[in-house]
Amino acid sequence: MKIGFGNDHAARGEIRAELMEHLKSRGHEVVDFGYAGEGAADYPVYARKVAHAVLSGEVECGILVCGTGIGMSIAANKVHGIRCAVCPDAYSAEKAREHNNANMIAIGARVVGPESLKVIMDSYLGATYNPKYDHRIAQIAEIEQAGE
After folding, report:
1. Catalytic residue flag (residue 99)
2. Do 53 and 81 touch, CB atoms closer than 8 A?
3. SS (H, E, C) 95-140
4. Which of 84, 94, 113, 137 lies 20 to 30 Å from 121 when distance is taken between CA atoms?
5. How many C-beta atoms lie closer than 10 Å to residue 25's C-beta?
6. 103/143 Cα distance (integer angstroms)
7. Residue pLDDT, tens place only, 10-19
8. Which pLDDT value is given to residue 74?
9. At residue 60, what are phi and psi to the nearest 5 degrees?
10. Catalytic residue at 61?
11. Which of 66, 84, 87, 135 is catalytic?
12. Spatial separation of the C-alpha atoms in residues 23 and 1, rounded to whole Å
């Protein structure tokens, strides 16, 4: 699977490299949209880059990592057509894909440790959307179209 990866300063350096290497070791292609610099980074910039890559088809899905996952998720969900779930655990990540057809997830590097981050990513990527929930996805799209 081709995955867009984005992060802010909360997940740079060693953790960033470790997570991307984990994805690659699982056979995924990773497109890096994340922050590798020094100092603080504005998470909306990176969430937006990954969201646009998902929508354009450049990548199949996106994984965002910031301090809590919350800010990245909020920013990504502002992009029309994105369904990004904050996933603090493997069960949430699996259900985000199965029930909500989430095309992105956001995880908090300050909330869970590196090994748990890997399990969360694997759970999301290993899950399959269940089309019995199509009516709910359509309802979400209706809300989005209405601009509510």
Report:
1. yes
2. no
3. HHHHHHCCCEEEEECCCCCHHHHHHHHHHHHHCCCCHHHHHHHHHH
4. 137
5. 9
6. 17
7. 998 889 999 9
8. 98
9. -85, -30
10. no
11. 66
12. 10
Q: Which residue has the tokens 């290993």?
A: 126
Sign of CA dihedral 135, 140, 141, 146: positive
Residue 124 has pLDDT above 90, yes or no: yes
Q: What is the mean pLDDT of the chain?
A: 96
Position 113 scores a pLDDT of: 92
Reference 85, options 105, 101, 71, 64; nearest CA is 105
Q: Is the pLDDT of residue 147 over 90?
A: no
C-alpha triplet 87, 50, 80: angle, nearest 5°: 85
Provide the edge-to-edge strand list for the sheet that holds 61-66. Answer: 29-32, 2-7, 61-66, 104-108, 84-86
Q: Is the dihedral of CA 112, 77, 28, 66 positive or negative?
A: negative
Kindly state the tokens that stand for 50: 């990954």
Token reading at 38: 């020094």
